[in-house]
């Protein structure tokens, strides 16, 4: 049974359950949605990420979540908290926030709505001293939302990742401290 972590006006944010990979593959794993995230994944890759997310939640009390649209009951995205785990990043282990919204729900404010709830979760219940978010210069929508959330560009944390194409390098980071977050509430 999934845990409900947060509810917003339009969304339920719940933990990922075993068996959710097929639904993620169906609604989120498209060339357009995954264009800036390393491309479409194989189902076994999604399953492995889900297993990692469930283990992270069991061990640390945070993970990535599914965004369920209250009006339809459909999965419209995923979002949450994980640890920076890219071996090329100098800030491995930091609390990393992120999101992904299915294409037919873009430009409806779901990512921003979900991320306000995720930031609240990160800074109150999880106790993160700060969070980071990773993207690329090419992912304009992503870094614009980071700025809208009050996050600050951290050029000192940038790194190149040969697993991504040239247009998605370098990986850039934004951060937000608990104090910065509290001052904007």
TrEMBL record:
Which CDD domains did the record assign? Answer: NAT_SF
Q: Where is the N-acetyltransferase domain?
A: 11-171
Spell out the SUPFAM superfamilies in the cross-references: Acyl-CoA N-acyltransferases (Nat) (SSF55729)
InterPro entries in the cross-refs: Acyl_CoA_acyltransferase, GNAT_dom, N-acetyltransferase
Protein name as it appears in the record: GNAT family N-acetyltransferase
What species does this protein belong to?
Answer: Qipengyuania citrea
């Amino acid at each position: 049974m999934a845990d409900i972590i947060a509810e917003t006006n339009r969304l339920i944010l719940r933990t990922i359950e075993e068996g959710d990979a097929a639904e993620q593959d169906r609604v989120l794993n498209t060339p357009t949605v995954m264009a800036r995230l390393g491309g479409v994944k194989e189902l076994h890759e999604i399953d492995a990420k889900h297993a990692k997310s469930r283990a992270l939640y069991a061990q640390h009390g945070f993970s990535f979540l599914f965004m369920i649209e209250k009006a339809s009951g459909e999965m419209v995205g995923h979002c949450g908290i994980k640890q920076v785990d890219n071996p090329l990043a100098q800030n491995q282990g930091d609390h990393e926030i992120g999101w992904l919204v299915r294409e037919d729900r873009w430009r409806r404010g779901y990512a921003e709505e979900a991320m306000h709830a995720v930031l609240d979760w990160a800074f109150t219940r999880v106790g993160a001293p700060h969070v980071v978010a990773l993207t690329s210069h090419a992912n304009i929508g992503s870094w614009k939302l980071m700025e809208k959330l009050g996050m600050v560009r951290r050029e000192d944390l940038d790194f190149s990742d040969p697993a991504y194409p040239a247009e998605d390098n370098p990986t850039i980071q934004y951060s937000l401290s608990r104090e910065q977050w509290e001052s904007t509430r």
